[in-house]
Amino acid sequence: MARYDYDLFVIGAGSGGVRAARIAAGHGARVGICEQSRVGGTCVIRGCIPKKLLVYASHFARDFEDARAYGWEPAANEFDWSRLIDNKNREIDRLNGVYLSLLSGAGVELIEERGVLADAHTVELGGRRITADKLLVAVGGWPWMPDIPGIGHAITSNEALELKSRPDRILIVGGGYIAVEFAGIFHGLGVETVEMIRAEHLLNGFDDDIRIELGEQMCADGVEIVNRTNPTAIEKTNEGYRVATDTGRTVEADLVMFATGRNPNTAGLGLEAAGVAVDDKGAVVVDAESRSSVGNIYAIGDVTDRLALTPVAIREGHAFADTVFGDRPWQADHANVPTAVFSQPPIGTAGLTEAEARAQWGEVDIYKSRFRPLKHTLTGRDEFTLMKLVVQPGSGRVLGAHMVGADAPEIAQGLGIAIKMGATKAQFDATVGIHPTAAEEFVTMREPA
Questions:
Q1: How far apart are alpha carbons 137 and 122 in whole angstroms?
Q2: pLDDT tens-digit map of 12-32
Q3: Which segments of the chain belong to CATH 3.50.50.60?
Q4: What pLDDT, on the 0 to 100 scale, is given for residue 75?
Q5: Which H or E run includes 23?
Q6: Alpha-carbon dihedral of residues 320, 326, 331, 336, nearest 10 degrees?
Q7: Can you give the pLDDT at residue 146?
């Protein structure tokens, strides 16, 4: 008779947890998984997918304008927020069904309850207890908001995806990727948009040239960015909300959204009862194989506060399952992970920023190109593309590639492969460009800036 109910039990059925459960089951393990919300996690239910659908929606007004330069006369158009949200929800329902089918097809038992650790091998699930040889914590992160007066009036990105109606004016607090993406969404859908940030520039941690370029282009497009400012209180008024700040300025808005970061979703999870160590943010402390301080308990994804990216969580989950249950040990590599920001214009990046490269290698060569895309030579739109390469002088190795402009996320995926392989500037130069494209600029930049 088996000592435990399961060989593996996963707490959290997001992208990483589902991948780990499926792969482990494929290796012959008896696997269970629990989820207190809908299967799919942040990315599928309240993050990447629904957000990008709204990004697509926000592009159309601009596309209709640009069409006139190419001989089209678009018919009078009207926007229906409710139809957009209904269609988005229908797609999320479909994806939720896909994830449910994937678990069922793999032979993974799903328990739709919140899981709380009772000890190193026991999970409490709505009055029921199960035991497992190995436990995997994959509960992701949750939006964080500061404790200021009136904060209960504000929403996060979770609620922004489910609004019943479109506001006329919105204040978005935060300068990270979620904040800039939603600023682009609301502005593109005709909402008067103000973004308030505590720093000088957007997107802390990204390359400085890219940060500055994005901010300038967002401002030129009509988003008001209020920098070096923090909200101190939110007051409800007859017209909406009034937000006070530490600079003395007040901002009036119909809706106030905070995108001020996400913390590991570990509160009340019972980690202390199981003896699992967490850091000061509540993230589970793990080694390179995703093992916690308790030998049979592992953690992957945003709950570990390593790289909060869905594809990273999926790789961590896959590596865990192969290593622990498949006798195929490998580790997820967190170096040179390409990423994108679906801002307007979007950003694509791979490898080190200029500041990171200088800190690691000292002197570096910088190549930059800024130009108006061919499309806008007819539209006259004041929109530019910026591309940048960070190169190690001695070896010529390309340490980082960064872009802000149309199609940047698609282009960055290919650049990520090149940087992962250790490509040199000479190899970039030896590659024939595809003309006319924006991407060809990455293989035609000859002189350091």
A1: 13
A2: 999 999 999 999 999 999 999
A3: 6-143+263-325, 151-260
A4: 80
A5: helix 15-26
A6: -90
A7: 97
